[in-house]
Amino acid sequence: LLGIWYHNFYKAETHALLPYDQYLHRFAAYFQQGDMESNGKYVTRSGDVVDYSTGPIVWGEPGTNGQHAFYQLIHQGTRLIPADFIAPAQSHNQ
């Protein structure tokens, strides 16, 4: 639902999911599968072409992996990139 909100109300074309726990390292990939593959189609189940934007581009890495790669773009770039930082309520790290 956040992707729909960001895309339709803020006109954002991407959505960053940034987990801050290494145990959630596949979190963004999981949502890529569900959102981009399932909701990224240009036709309905009945074969009609849609007249609205479909799912946004979902991407991300755990904070420890992506810090220098794309945080510069999010922080100082010229595009609006909604970023959701995900932190566990209870970490499994010891």
Automatic annotation (TrEMBL):
A single MF term (Gene Ontology): monosaccharide binding
SUPFAM superfamilies tied to this protein: SIS domain (SSF53697)
A cellular component annotation (GO) from this entry: cytosol
The protein's name in its UniProt record: Phosphoglucose isomerase-like protein
A GO biological process held by the record: gluconeogenesis
Swiss-Prot/TrEMBL keywords: Gluconeogenesis, Glycolysis, Isomerase
Keyword Magnesium assigned: no
Isomerase among keywords: yes
